[in-house]
Amino acid sequence: MSETKTPASATPKPTIAIPDTAHYRRETRLVHSGSLRSQYGETSEALFLTQGFVYDSAEQCEARFTGDDAGFQYSRFSNPTVFSFEQRMAEFEGAETARATATGMAAVTAAILAPLRAGDHVVASKAMFGSCRYVVEDLLPRYGIESTLVDGLDLDQWQKALRPNTRTCFLESPTNPTLDVLDIGEIAKIAHAGGARLVVDNVFATPIWQSPLELGADVVVYSATKHIDGQGRCLGGVVLSSQAFIEEHIQMYLRQTGPSLSPFNAWVLLKGLETLAIRVRQQTENAAAIADALAGHPKIGRLIYPGRADHPQAATVKKQMGAGSTLIGFEVKGGKAEAFRFLNALKLIKISNNLGDAKSLVTHPATTTHQRLKPEARAELGISEGFIRYSAGLEHKDDLVEDLIAALEKV
Ligand SMILES: *Cc1c(COP(=O)(O)O)cnc(C)c1O
Fold first, then answer.
1. Which amino acids bring their CB within 6 angstroms of ligand 1?
2. Which ligand 1 atom sits nearest the alpha carbon of residue 128?
3. In the record, which positions carry N6-(pyridoxal phosphate)lysine (predicted)?
């Protein structure tokens, strides 16, 4: 399948009525928005596991390609199940529109790369997910897009890094894995004053606890692989923004380069959204209880949880987040050897580099997600050899605390 003509409307238009749910509260939107109920009246959303679509006539096919006829053409461009997921995400987040991608990294790459051209400049906070840092630091400069990495907590550094050709500022908050909380509203003001847009990777905060668009960001991206699926099954991603940004920069890029979300994965993620609020609330409650149980333990050095009063940016957390997230960072005293002894002694909690799952997961960032960084870069970010990232699951919190304390006793 190939085509070169730019469609009159880049936005897919389903032929089934989209439910009117925008006026409901957020939890209700998570369950009902974007459902395209067919003539059979199914309760659960149908899965349109199809590559393409057939037309009544050559004329209809032509009209579909010009955008004059509503409906779908090819699942690389759009698909009813993928559309439902996008619509539910957009209504939930309060964005004008959304586009889904095969992975979180496809969403991050599209949001950063697609609007830029050689000669443009990007400013990003240096504390970020390893692959995001690769895109900003290694990939963009190869195509003539320069980037400057700043200490995201230092507003002065954002200000000073901006150049006349800065088009995009990028950050994640809380940061991975050290859980610094960056002031999204203030950074958005600095970016806008300099003529740049702010793109926020909101995975660690989750859409339940932080709404970057309301805080002033222009674009929000998610790895749906994390809390949105939340049950360890599918990869996925989503870019949310204004209609203008998506149509001008994202729609054609995704359609023509092809990092499309599979309809099957879109269906799983759509069902994941229905339980997202209760899962994230429970996981956050567990994380808060565990952070309190571990803080001050003699085998633990620094412990960072955005929900605690001793978090270094507690005031910013209060200003922009509804709660402290599902993740905790802490340092096992004694470096890598003791950190590994601790990880290997856990019985219930699983070692995995994933996060946001129903199962509690722990990772050692220095040897996994941030292994690629030079030791000095890790040290600068506060990722010591004893640092552990813990993602709280849905188990009973007492079982989790007991597992953690028993493993610390082996250190
Ligand atoms: C996991 C993650 C990504 C990448 O998502 P994938 O779905 O694995 O491609 C990007 N940013 C953050 C903060 C993440 O945690």
1. 103-105, 108, 129, 131-132, 172, 176, 201, 203-204, 223, 225-226, 235, 237
2. 13
3. 226
Give yes or no: residues 109 and 85 share one domain: no
Tell me if 95 is assigned to some domain. Answer: no
Atom of ligand 1 nearest to the CA of 356: 15
Mention every residue, 6+ apart, whose C-beta is less than 8 A from residue 198. 168, 169, 170, 171, 184, 187, 188, 191, 192, 212, 216, 217, 218, 219
For the whole prediction, is pTM greater than 0.70? Answer: yes
> What are the pLDDT digits (tens) for 332-347?
999 999 999 999 999 9
Domain count, the chain: 3
Q: How many CB atoms sit inside 10 A of residue 3's CB?
A: 12
**Pair (309, 210) in one structural domain:** no
Whether 181 is in a domain gets the answer yes
pLDDT in tens, 343-386: 999 999 999 999 999 999 999 999 998 888 889 989 888 999 99
Distance 253 CA to ligand 1 centre (A): 20
Ligand 1 centroid distance, CA of 85 (Å):
18
Instruction: List the CATH number of the domain containing 12.
Output: 3.40.640.10
pLDDT at 9 over 60: no
CB 189 within 8 A of CB 183: no
Asked if residue 76 and residue 24 are part of one domain, the reply reads yes
> In this structure, are 3 and 126 located in the same domain?
no
**Cα end-to-end span (Å), the chain:** 59
Q: How many A from CA of 206 to the centre of ligand 1?
A: 12
Dist CA 406 CA 393 (whole Å): 18
